[in-house]
């Protein structure tokens, strides 16, 4: 006889006061990334172990997921029991009391095993509001065979200008070979995640210390000109529609010589079942320019429970299972150790994992170096490398992302896009009452 929800909660030291003895269904909202799709498949193991808990999955594209979750939690709609969110939402929604604190986790969860920077990014005033499924920095992927054939050598610490030069030499559009693939899809968590790190590397910042936007400065102009010019010259067609998944598909199909994006893609680009170039991928650090501060992001996709959920205890059992060392062991057994969700636990980076995953060292060092409290060469009033942790950023970042996407496809010039970004951001910050 399998244990009931009540018995499981008792074993894991969780409160049982609100648990129904009948079966419960959890509605889980998650993003359509490969690791989450794998979690959905492997969750059959969880359901077998917990027959009183049924799982209903809602898998959405990143921008759509964020929009749906923001609307639901702000209105206390109660559509979802488990939310896949990032550090931005965990900090803001936790502070508003919209998320359940992740307390009373079983000793076997080994919370101390989770990297401190990841725990801190998902906490507010010492209270943890989400459990990290995976964490990532941004790194550079490149085709070792194409570099060798062209007589090029990728530095361990490349600059963006060097990346642009390599991309130009490795672009052969008649063969559908593009020197570089970067995010172009508009969104605060899409193109702006990447472009913000480029801007940081060029010495730019979103706001000065008095919360005044700085898009009119030379640093942003240099960064955005580089991004637009390089993508027009060496990027794929239709880049304004490309986010993480689209660029991953392009890279795996052999059409990108260089790709700078999330370190979590390491296991996908080296997987021979989905990558045509698995044997020819090199890994190095995200490019810097005038500074390396803020040149690589820190982010975590994590599982959180809204206070509007009517199945909080069951939701906590699932969230703890999906982010546990045991889940990592299950992934290693079913799909290979290289596919264990990266970036969250020190124990993941064992000798076996480090030797099996050629991207592991770069990922680990990048995660250690990323400091959201110091995202640039100059002081800032905010926390965040590829984002600004204030409620207004979701709207501002998306509007700026649309302006920059328009510049990428030639609807506007870089100067016009920056002027629009400055005007939009000044207006929204004034409306919100900054400086506060």
Query: End-to-end span in angstroms?
Result: 58 Å
How helix-rich are the residues, as a percent range? 40-55%
- Tally of helical segments: 17
Q: How much β-strand is present in the residues? A: 5-15%
Any idea how many domains? 2
Question: How is this structure best summarized?
Answer:
The chain is 41% helix and 12% strand.
Architecture overview:
The chain has about 425 residues and is an alpha+beta fold. The chain folds into two domains: about 5-135 and about 300-350, D-Maltodextrin-Binding Protein, domain 2 (3-Layer(aba) Sandwich); about 140-295 and about 370-430, D-Maltodextrin-Binding Protein, domain 2 (3-Layer(aba) Sandwich), CATH 3.40.190.10. The protein is about 40% helix and about 10% strand. It is built from 17 helices and ten strands. It has helices spanning about 5-10, 35-50, 60-75, 85-95, 115-120, 145-150, 160-170, 190-200, 220-235, 245-250, 265-270, 310-320, 325-335, 350-355, 360-370, 395-410, 415-430, and strands at about 25-30, 55-60, 80-85, 125, 125-130, 130-135, 140-145, 260, 280-285, 300-305. The protein has a five-stranded mixed sheet. A three-stranded antiparallel sheet has the order 8-7-9, sandwiched between helices. A two-stranded antiparallel sheet has the order 4-5. A hairpin with a 2-residue loop joins strand 4 (about 125) and strand 5 (about 125-130). Helix 7 (about 160-170) runs parallel beside helix 9, helix 8 (about 190-200) crosses helix 9 and helix 16 (about 395-410) packs antiparallel against helix 17 (about 415-430). It starts with a helix and ends in a 5-residue tail after the last helix.
């Amino acid at each position: 006889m399998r244990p009931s929800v009540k018995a499981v909660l008792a074993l894991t030291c969780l409160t049982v006061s609100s648990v129904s003895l009948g079966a419960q269904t959890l509605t889980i909202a998650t993003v359509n990334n490969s690791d989450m799709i794998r979690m959905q498949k492997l969750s059959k193991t969880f359901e077998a172990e917990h027959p009183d808990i049924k799982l209903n999955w809602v898998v959405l594209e990143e921008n759509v997921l964020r929009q749906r979750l923001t609307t639901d939690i702000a209105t206390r709609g109660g559509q979802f029991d488990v939310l896949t969110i990032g550090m931005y939402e965990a900090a803001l929604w936790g502070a508003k009391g919209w998320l359940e604190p992740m307390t009373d986790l079983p000793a076997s969860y080994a919370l101390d095993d989770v990297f401190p920077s990841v725990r801190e990014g998902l906490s507010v005033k010492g209270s943890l509001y989400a459990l990290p499924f995976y964490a990532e920095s941004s790194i550079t992927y490149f085709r070792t065979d194409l570099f060798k054939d062209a007589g090029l050598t990728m530095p361990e610490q490349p600059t963006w200008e060097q990346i642009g030069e390599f991309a130009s030499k490795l672009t052969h559009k008649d063969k559908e070979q593009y020197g570089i693939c970067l995010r172009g899809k508009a969104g605060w968590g899409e193109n702006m995640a990447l472009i913000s790190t480029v801007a940081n590397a060029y010495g730019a910042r979103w706001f000065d210390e008095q919360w005044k936007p700085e898009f009119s400065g030379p640093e942003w102009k240099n960064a955005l000109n580089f991004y637009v010019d390089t993508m027009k010259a060496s990027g794929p067609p239709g880049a304004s529609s490309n986010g993480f998944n689209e660029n991953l598909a392009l890279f795996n199909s052999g059409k990108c010589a260089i790709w700078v994006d999330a370190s979590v893609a390491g296991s996908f680009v080296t997987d021979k079942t989905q990558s045509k170039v698995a044997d020819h991928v090199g890994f190095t650090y995200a490019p810097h320019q005038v500074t390396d501060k803020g040149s690589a992001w820190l982010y975590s996709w994590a599982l959180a429970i809204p206070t509007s959920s009517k199945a909080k205890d069951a939701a906590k059992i699932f969230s703890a299972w999906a982010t546990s060392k045991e889940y990592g062991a299950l992934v290693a057994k079913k799909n290979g150790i290289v596919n264990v969700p990266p970036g969250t636990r020190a124990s993941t980076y064992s000798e076996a994992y480090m030797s099996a995953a050629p991207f592991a060292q770069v990922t680990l060092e990048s995660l250690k170096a990323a400091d959201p409290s110091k995202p640039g060469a100059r002081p800032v009033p905010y926390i965040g490398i590829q984002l600004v942790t204030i409620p207004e950023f979701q709207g501002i970042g998306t509007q700026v992302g649309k302006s920059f996407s328009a510049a990428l496809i030639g609807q506007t010039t870089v100067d016009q896009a920056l002027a629009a970004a400055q005007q939009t951001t000044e207006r929204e910050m004034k409306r919100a009452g900054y400086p506060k």
